[in-house]
Write a structure and sequence with these properties.
This protein is of the alpha/beta class and 374 residues long. The protein has twelve helices and eight strands. The protein is 54% helix and 12% strand.
């Protein structure tokens, strides 16, 4: 009886492994095909709309924003269909949705970006008006051409390229972010994944008498300093009377209104990476996001004070994550239940049909043109 039970259990485990393997293969093929009929279609539509960009740029960028949102909706389907749910805790961010907002978040793996894409996909008017600041290496991925057309910013890592990269960021903010009326801007101040940055960060902390962090790495202040120098709130020490006398003669400059600090917490402290999202190889689980929303006016502009403010936020993240990994909550047992991000399956279906139909039309259009030429 024992031998029979053991054999049955072994057979069940083997069958389960085979099913999971086939599921991973099927999901990988789906993602590959999904890329093939979505990204080229986006590029073709943007090329066809180029005359609109020249003569009516506001209309073009509004349409591009919608296409960009729809395309990131495709990425959201990967996370959603794998059963990787997202739970929101902390401050209500609804009041910042339509305002210029700098989003800063801890960086643990290649899964951070899809997780944030999936989160923002469920919120109106965020993804069409967003600008991502990402490592230059992503420029050469399959999604790079989309980010180039959307005018995201690629930042170069490394001390030697830092100053040049920050100058390029200043130029990009002035020539893209402001003219295109982007609202949200996403920045990972750590400058790399936790697994790659932790040892370097801890060594730097020991030499400079800074906190030794385990769950996050020390943030870099260069990019956020540049952002506040260009689109930070104006600091005016003049009297109210002087301000009122000059207000009618000056044109208000675009300014960041909010800083949204997101702490990303993966179950058991084990990050979900992009290959896992694609294959669905990890069992369904919940990733928790903790929000802290700050008016930009409370963020100091002076380099030393800004650096301290940013480091304080990351020390808080360390405490939040340590408590979460030990007890399953951020702020203790009295923490209220979070809100689960809800996706719209019907919308996903319509978007897939749109991209598939567009690909079919574009294929036949190019086939006809080629037949006329040859």
């Amino acid at each position: 009886m024992t031998d029979t039970s053991s054999s049955t259990s072994t057979l069940a485990r083997l069958l389960n492994s085979v099913v999971n393997f086939l599921k991973c293969i099927a999901r990988t093929l789906f993602v590959l095909v999904n890329n093939c009929y979505c990204i080229p279609t986006y590029v073709v539509w943007m090329a066809l709309l180029f005359p609109v960009k020249v003569y009516q740029p506001q209309i073009y960028w509004r349409i591009e924003g919608l296409f960009f949102h729809w395309l990131l909706g495709m990425v959201s389907t990967w996370t959603w269909t794998a059963g990787y749910d997202i739970i929101e805790h902390g401050d209500d961010i609804q009041k910042a949705i339509s305002d210029r907002t700098l989003v800063i978040a801890n960086h643990q793996s290649t899964g951070d970006v899809p997780i944030l894409m999936t989160t923002f996909n469920a919120k109106q008017n965020v993804l069409p008006n967003i600008m991502w600041i990402m490592d230059k290496v992503f420029k050469y991925t399959n999604f790079g051409v989309v980010s180039i057309l959307h005018e995201d910013f690629f930042i170069s890592s490394g001390r030697k390229k830092r100053e040049e990269s920050l100058r390029h960021l200043t130029k990009h903010l002035k020539e893209s972010y402001i003219p295109l009326d982007r609202k949200w801007m996403i920045l990972f101040p750590e400058g790399g994944f936790l697994c790659k940055r932790r040892e370097v960060s801890q060594n730097y902390a020991k030499k400079n008498n800074l906190p030794i962090l385990e769950n996050v790495s020390l943030p870099r202040v260069g990019a956020i300093q540049t952002i506040f120098d260009v689109v930070g709130p104006t600091q005016n020490n003049n009297s109210n009377q002087e301000l009122n006398n000059t207000s009618s003669m000056t044109v208000s400059k675009p300014e960041i209104s909010w800083v949204l600090d997101i702490t990303i917490a993966y179950p058991q402290g084990k990050p979900i990476d992009l290959p896992t999202i694609i294959t669905g190889s990890r069992p369904p689980c919940e990733t928790v996001l903790f929000y802290r929303l700050f008016p930009s006016s409370v963020v100091p502009r002076e380099p030393e004070l800004l650096s301290k403010w940013l480091h304080d936020r990351w020390v808080e993240k360390e405490s939040l994550l340590e408590n979460f990994y030990k007890h399953g909550t951020f702020l203790g047992t009295n923490q209220t239940e979070g809100s689960k991000i809800q996706q719209d399956p019907l919308r996903f279906l319509v978007l897939h049909l749109f991209f598939i139909t567009s690909s079919y039309i574009h294929y036949n259009m190019f086939a006809y043109v080629l037949s006329c030429i040859w």
